[in-house]
UniProtKB/TrEMBL annotation:
Reactions catalysed, as given in the entry: L-aspartyl-tRNA(Asn) + L-glutamine + ATP + H2O = L-asparaginyl-tRNA(Asn) + L-glutamate + ADP + phosphate + 2 H(+); L-glutamyl-tRNA(Gln) + L-glutamine + ATP + H2O = L-glutaminyl-tRNA(Gln) + L-glutamate + ADP + phosphate + H(+)
Alphabetical list of PANTHER family matching this protein: GLUTAMYL-TRNA GLN AMIDOTRANSFERASE SUBUNIT B MITOCHONDRIAL AND PROKARYOTIC PET112-RELATED (PTHR11659), GLUTAMYL-TRNA(GLN) AMIDOTRANSFERASE SUBUNIT B, MITOCHONDRIAL (PTHR11659:SF0)
Quaternary state and interactors: Heterotrimer of A, B and C subunits.
Keywords in alphabetical order: ATP-binding, Ligase, Nucleotide-binding, Protein biosynthesis
Source organism: Rhizochromulina marina
Name of the protein in its database record: Asn/Gln amidotransferase domain-containing protein
GO biological process: glutaminyl-tRNAGln biosynthesis via transamidation; mitochondrial translation
């Protein structure tokens, strides 16, 4: 709308000391929108079908946005005992009130009832958090109270057609308040669905009420009833003028927006040949996507994007989580891609093995500082961790191992199996490869060693 106005919503509760809440009941800042996101439901995470071509996996889901409104936050009510999971309950027990957040401004998204499963609800919240991070509206940290979710659930009769909205939304709506993570949202939704199903199956009515969620028991509990319609006595807010937003202002803001998550994911898929799943992992945090592209943009030999993506989303994410780093930019190592690029260059050129690369990554992170591109190489050289990749050197080592008396019996078996055309000859060749690896203490470059093994065996065949 071109005009957005504020109202006072009057009601009495422990967490509202003023007796009213400033909100936007009739004139929200926006209405009738939609949020589209890439659903994880049905996604093939990393397989032959999703790994190489970057084709679409999963599906794009869309949920209608009824309204987007600005309002005041309330306080937080806490039960004295934690039997109710930390929220006030309908058992008459003593309640404490935390007013630290009361009066703070918040942005409320009200979605239409288009979600059909707990997993979809969690997906939606993750997508919304990613969007808010991309446009720098909110850091999305649930643990710090930057985001929280209220969940509304109602059940329709089995077999209700999707286009029969009157019947689809005929169930009694129950609200679950203040869920502080997508995981808890999913658990609360699953429990509430089961609870309502059990009531309806036994012929009992579902009560219209507000419930909380106990993370320990993974169950919802009753907070207050909504049996009677409450008169909130909405009145115009006298201390805040109306917001007049022109089309020019809206267009200017739209032009200034950064690349949105869906567009960024599609571009990364098209540009770097990643799967939609891998691209989605990178795009979930804007800082991670920027780190990935900056890493590939550094000068030097071309680095496979799949290698970079896998190391960021698997090894680096895992190592940071092991150090209790909650946000990707919070560790000094991620302030520059130079350190990881230097490590991946060594891995891609087979100067080091994957096991060594993982060890070097841990050592780099232990430094708790931004590191340059040569830091990984310095650690590798200091510990004599470089792989042996010179063909002549590997051939000489392979000849030495095959000439050892301990290998003579395996060589006789290999010759016999080779003459018989048996597949077991290939298994014996792998045993030779393992023997050379042990001899070099794992420093032989696998692809170069495989060629050396074949050449040495051809030489032995020629002598027979």
């Amino acid at each position: 709308p071109a005009v957005s106005r504020f109202e006072r919503k009057h009601y009495y509760y422990f967490d509202l000391p003023a007796g009213y809440q400033i909100t936007q009941q009739d004139w929200p800042i926006a209405r009738d929108g939609e949020l589209a996101w890439f659903s994880s439901q049905g996604v093939k995470k990393r397989g032959k079908k999703s790994g190489g071509g970057g084709g679409a996996v999963g599906q794009v889901r869309r949920v209608r946005l009824e309204r987007l409104q600005l309002e005041q936050d309330s306080g937080k009510s806490l039960a004295v005992d934690d039997a109710g999971g930390g929220e006030s309950r309908r058992d008459g027990g003593e309640v404490l009130v935390d007013l630290n957040r009361a009066g703070a401004a918040l942005l409320e998204f009200v979605f239409m009832p288009d979600l059909r499963s707990p997993e979809e609800a969690a997906d939606l919240v993750r997508a919304l958090r990613g969007l808010l991070r991309h446009v720098d509206v909110c850091d999305g940290n649930f643990e710090e109270g930057s985001m929280r979710v209220d969940l509304n659930i109602s059940l329709a009769p089995p077999g209700t057609p999707e286009d029969d909205e009157a019947q689809l939304y005929s169930g009694v709506r129950v609200e679950v308040k203040n869920l502080n993570s997508p995981r808890y949202l999913s658990l609360a939704a699953a429990h509430e669905i089961s609870r309502q199903q059990a009531l309806l199956s036994s012929g009992q009515p579902v009560e219209r009420e507000t419930r909380g969620f106990n993370a320990k028991t993974r169950a919802t509990y009753s907070m207050r009833s909504k049996e009677e319609a409450y008169d909130y006595r909405f009145l115009p807010e006298p201390d805040l003028p109306a917001l007049h937003v022109s089309r020019e202002q809206v267009d200017a803001i739209r032009e200034a927006l950064p690349e949105l998550p869906t567009a960024m994911r599609d571009r990364i898929v098209a540009t770097y040949g990643l799967s939609a799943y891998d691209a989605g992992l990178l795009v979930a945090q804007p800082a991670v996507a920027r780190f990935f592209e900056a890493l590939l943009g550094l000068p030097g030999d071309k680095l496979p994007p799949k290698l970079a993506a896998n190391w960021i989303t698997n090894e680096l994410f895992g190592a940071l989580a092991g150090r209790y780093v909650e946000q990707f930019p919070d560790h000094a190592f991620t302030s520059s891609p130079e350190g990881l690029r230097g490590l991946l260059d060594l891995l891609h050129s087979e100067d080091i093995s994957t096991l060594v690369a993982k060890e070097v990554l841990e050592l780099l992170l232990d430094q708790e500082a931004a590191v340059g591109r040569l830091a990984a190489e310095a650690l590798v050289d200091a510990n004599s961790w470089r792989q042996i990749s010179d063909p002549d050197e590997l051939l000489a080592i392979t000849r030495e191992v095959l000439a050892h008396p301990r290998t003579s019996k395996d060589l006789e078996d290999w010759r016999a199996e080779k003459r018989a055309g048996s597949k077991r000859a290939g298994k014996i060749e792998k045993a030779f490869l393992g023997a050379v690896m042990r001899h070099t203490r794992g420093r032989a470059a696998p692809s170069a060693l495989a060629k050396a093994i074949q050449q040495a065996l051809r030489e032995l065949e020629g002598r027979v």
